[in-house]
Amino acid sequence: MTERPRQTASHAAPVFRFAPSPNGRLHLGHALSALLNADMASSTGGRLLLRIEDIDLTRCSQELEQAVIDDLTWLGIAFEQPVRRQSEHFPLYRAALDRLKAMDLVYPAFLTRSEVKARVSAFEREGGTWPRDPDGAPLYPKEERSLGEDERAEKLATAERHAWRLDIARAQRVVGAKLSWQETGDGPQGEIKADPAAWGDVVLWRSDAPSSYHLAVTVDDAAQGVSHVVRGLDLFHATSVHRLLQTLLGLPEPVYHHHRLILGPDGRKLSKSLDDTALSTLRAEGKTPSDIRAMVGI
Ligand code: GLU
């Protein structure tokens, strides 16, 4: 396998982005991420973009998007206009999927999440251990990659609901084993070896929403010329998938900075359902933007 030359985003000024999903209110964890992006952009003379990650049309709303913008404005963060909304770019993600289809690297996946779960439970009841991804979810059964052409064509013809998944084994054969990224964050630093196979055959196009997080984020970081991805350590391992997709699609490679997470009183990552750390709640209690900076430790 020949090693491909590494493509690096080259821009006069560094480009940062904050990319929240408007499916709930922003909390202290988002504040840390947004403020770090803003501080790094200002200390490097860089640009700061806002991307609204609203591919999940059932969970995201216009009101929540406005609330995100209000919270960020209150924090004193100014983003370049226009704001990019993923829901306005589905054809772009579709084109990327079509390229991967033309390379024969994706396949229609017909099992629902509960069917996968049932298969995994049956296997584990027999004493086996089913492989899990870095988030703990069971990998999609490998044998589904190789459904017969006839069976696949028949299912597609009857418009059976399906997602599109990446055939990770084929994708890795195309890219080779030497996939890595440059990391400057709060976890491991330097050149990090990517391990996309840990995720199995990831979903690139959901059956219930256009596109998937992985495909949209990869396409958008390139479309927006993002040179520095600053986000939480919870997305550290997802970077392996993003580097694989960038390489397959011939897209440039940003530098990554995965920052520490703000944990709740139970020691777990904050979630949008924890109301007491919502920026809107803290603001209503009389906290100021500098209190928020102090609370997140910057
Ligand atoms: N939209 C993702 C989130 O809210 C962040 C994506 C990213 O920064 O790559 O968790």
Automatic annotation (TrEMBL):
Q: Where is the Glutamyl/glutaminyl-tRNA synthetase class Ib catalytic domain?
A: 17-288
Write out the entry's keywords from A to Z: Aminoacyl-tRNA synthetase, ATP-binding, Ligase, Metal-binding, Nucleotide-binding, Protein biosynthesis, Zinc
UniProt cross-references to SUPFAM superfamilies, sorted A to Z: Nucleotidylyl transferase
- PANTHER family membership: GLUTAMATE--TRNA LIGASE, GLUTAMYL-Q TRNA(ASP) SYNTHETASE
Q: What is this protein called?
A: Glutamyl-Q tRNA(Asp) synthetase
Q: Which Gene Ontology molecular-function terms are recorded?
A: ligase activity
- The protein's Enzyme Commission number: 6.1.1.-
What segment(s) does the record annotate as region Disordered?
124-150
Top EC group = ligase
The similarity comment for this entry is: Belongs to the class-I aminoacyl-tRNA synthetase family.
